[in-house]
Write a structure and sequence with these properties.
The structure is a homodimer of 466-residue chains.
Chain A (H helix, E strand, L loop, with lengths): L1 H14 L12 H8 L3 H13 L3 E4 L3 E4 L2 H8 L17 H6 L5 E2 L12 H14 L14 H15 L8 E5 H13 L5 E6 L3 H9 L3 E6 L7 H11 L3 E4 L13 H13 L3 E6 L23 E6 L1 H4 L5 E5 L2 H14 L5 H11 L2 H28 L12 E5 L6 H10 L2 E2 L1 E2 L12 E5 L5 H16 L4
Parallel strand pairs in A: 3-12, 5-6, 5-7, 7-8, 8-9
Antiparallel strand pairs in A: 1-2, 4-10, 9-10, 11-14, 13-14
Chain lengths: 466, 466
């Protein structure tokens, strides 16, 4: 969708009156050179401008900026009164799918609240308020509660044999915020960034709204093609590589140890930050995954996003960014301007539960429960479809390839009618082309509903088979 | 600091290789015209480029882009290894002052946790977890918990006689996030926005990081000069006017009723959104303030930011943006990309306390307690200084004019040494010129400490008097 970014760029110039009504737009060749994009991309942007009444074509002469008033009406007659935003055509694809209320929820990579020790958690919360009676009236330091950061330092030292300083940790409100803060700090419009193909759809939408050019890196069961990664770093000089190397979302793949070290070396050599998003580290079924890339990093080129609350207490939305102090300074400033710090209440509740023995027991049970659900989903699909997938060794999702010409978008609409939702592969693809793929989440609904839901889904799918 | 924004704009072009090493920069005249700024502003930006080794001057010829490698080192030799961010020289001035740990805290517009009914709140929280046993495992809808939005609809209908629909309310994590979301939605680099002079420093820093050109509107005890407002709207076509018309931060002034209606008319006529930040509405001492501007708005030009948790339970960070549905759509998208929704835990706790009778009783007591602290601060200052101020009729701050040549910055550094902090007026001024002014907050520390702190502060100040 690069052409939409070029479109936004031009609309911005027009709205700021840098390019005025009646003025000739730069030639396609010239603008393509200036922005470092293909001519066809600029051509498509100009076509969209024309369609939306923002530009007009004069035969043999080129494109011209149209009168502003006219274009405003042409764009969206229903919203005449609404002031124009910078959002343009960007949206949050995943969030729109998840906003549809359904009984058979296969689109949320969330753990079933019934798998959490709710009663115990509630009792625990009460204790927390006895320990900190003024919790409701207190703000957290912008960078995060000190007690919590101390705990996470100890945890990382024990778990990953990595020594952190207190101010190498920033507490954020969920992984989405962590991704967004990093994007805000590093992406200027039209900057190149590397993203896996496929990847987490929410991250793609965050990067798009910041105007990034998304350069895809293929991910397979063996990890990346490092020669491709190096070539892309060389060619595009990307600001960062956003990656999800452990029980990758949506595929479930894990980038092998051997590649992890080499990736950090590439990052240093090409001065390309690695944004390592690690949401499912503790959600393994057989063996624990290899150490995170950040443990190989000595020069500060890895920013490590570690979600904790997903499997502890998702409602608290506690996540951490771990990075070197030179990066932390600006990151804390951006966090302060975004929300002035994550609420202290949430951090203290998380802190006290996270260090309890109960948490470790819960985690073991949770892994078994998730594995059971994965197995049920696989068994049902195996029996009822010829769809293909690789068994995930951790994480919350199954990434399925349907027959090549399968109309996935039509299936999704039909599923919504039957109170079922899933994630279509196209929104996980930076190029929006992976049409016959879908992501099914097995962690959110119970075994019985899961079985029912998959049966219904596969029944519906039959009517679309060629 | 407009020149820094122009500087950032040029640095961006250079970093993206749009303007390459060795290339001649546009003439000062040309760039000033293109960006719609004064030539002196561009001159200052070019000077800064030169100082930072990003540009060089050739006699009689103009400015040229310097070799990238060279400039990178020249800019910041200490952070050589740190990847460059888009933050540039922007920071959060207020947050940096508040991060200094002090005993006599006059820089935080926060209510003393001891004034909140903490024990009662803690008991309440326990009930909330009994009502919603799965709270810890549940996400909120991105736009906010439905029960909470229903409650706020009823509250606004009762309090302000304004009928809202459920989807005209968005729950945010504090007012800072609300301001930031609106800035993200409307500000493109170099867009003009109107801001009061002085105003809330945190908002200025948010707007700066989005690249806004800040156009000041003077605020006085009588409100604004509406002719000035109209002229500025006409001349600059600002994206919005960020205002704090009720117990204004930092001055305490309230824009009179008569002006409120006229401002909404101006907004409609010049298609300039009013961002009405209303953090202190319930914090009045004599009579309740006039109705918010948004109650006069029928066409959707007012975005109303209402902080609730400040006087209820600041640790929860619950705030709301109220606006028409046409604006709400994109706002919810931006919220989803920023953090996927405010944690449900915080919303449910707030909900249940906010609708309790106890809250109303607490509010009455709180007003009296704050008034007592204001009176003590005024009495101490009256006795010990010739500083000038207007008695605030609500809010949490005193805005003081010190003698004209008073070295406020030196005073602040000396105060830090004695464990005292306050807000220097310059950071509240979009032009950063209001040198002899300071903001003292009277809500955070108790009567005894407040007295002590003011005595110490005025003692220290004596050594700087001419």
């Amino acid at each position: 969708m690069l052409f939409k970014q070029v479109y936004q760029y031009i609309v911005g110039k027009i709205e700021r009156n840098e390019w005025q009504a009646g003025e000739k737009l730069p030639s396609i060749r010239l603008l393509a050179e200036e922005l470092g994009v293909h001519r066809l991309t600029v051509f498509k942007a100009y076509q969209l401008l024309k369609e939306n009444g923002k530009a007009l074509v004069k035969e043999k002469s080129g494109y011209y900026v149209k009168d502003a008033q006219q274009s405003c009406h042409a764009l969206d007659p229903d919203l005449e009164a609404a002031p124009p935003t910078v959002l343009g055509e960007f949206k949050n694809n995943l969030s729109e799918i998840q906003a549809v209320p359904v009984a058979y929820q296969f689109s949320q990579a969330l753990i079933d609240p019934n798998l959490l020790p709710n009663l115990f958690l509630s009792e625990y919360v009460k204790k927390v308020f006895d320990i900190y009676p003024k919790l409701m009236g207190s703000y957290s330091p912008v960078q995060g509660d000190i007690e919590l950061r101390e705990l996470l330092c100890r945890y990382i030292a024990h778990k990953h044999k990595a020594q952190l300083k207190l101010n190498e940790i920033l507490i954020t409100s969920g992984a989405t915020q962590a991704i967004d803060l990093i994007a805000r700090l590093y992406i200027r419009p039209l900057d190149a960034i590397l993203v896996e193909r496929p990847t987490y759809s929410g991250a793609l939408d965050v990067f798009r709204i910041h105007g990034a050019r998304l350069i895809p890196v293929e991910i397979s069961i063996d990890g990346y093609d490092l020669e491709q990664v190096e070539a892309l770093m060389k060619q595009h000089r990307p600001r960062f590589f956003y990656m999800n190397p452990t029980f990758h979302n949506p595929t479930g793949y894990t980038v092998p140890s051997a590649q992890r070290k080499l990736l950090v070396e590439l990052a240093e050599r090409y001065r390309c930050i690695l944004v390592e998003d690690d949401a499912f580290h503790e959600m393994y079924f057989d063996t624990p995954p290899p150490p995170p890339l950040f443990t190989y990093d000595t020069e500060g080129w890895v920013l490590y996003i570690r979600s904790f609350s997903k499997y502890v207490a998702p409602g608290l939305r506690i996540c951490a960014i771990i990075c070197r102090q030179s990066v932390m300074g600006p990151l804390v400033t951006v966090k302060s301007l975004a929300d002035n710090g994550t609420p202290l209440v949430n951090q203290k509740i998380f802190l006290h539960y996270f260090q309890s023995d109960r948490m470790q027991q819960h985690l073991k049970k949770l892994r078994i429960a998730l594995q059971v659900r994965r197995d049920i989903m696989e068994a049902e699909l195996h029996e009822r479809t010829n769809w293909e997938w690789v068994r995930p060794k951790g994480g919350l999702n199954l990434w399925l390839k349907l027959p090549d010409t399968f109309p996935v978008e039509t299936l999704l609409q039909a599923c919504f009618q039957h109170s079922i939702s899933f994630v279509p592969g196209t929104i996980c693809d930076p190029l929006q082309q992976m049409k016959p793929w879908i992501r099914l989440n097995y962690s959110f609904i119970n075994e019985e509903k899961l079985r029912e839901g998959i049966r219904k889904l596969t029944d519906i799918s039959r009517q679309f088979e060629a």
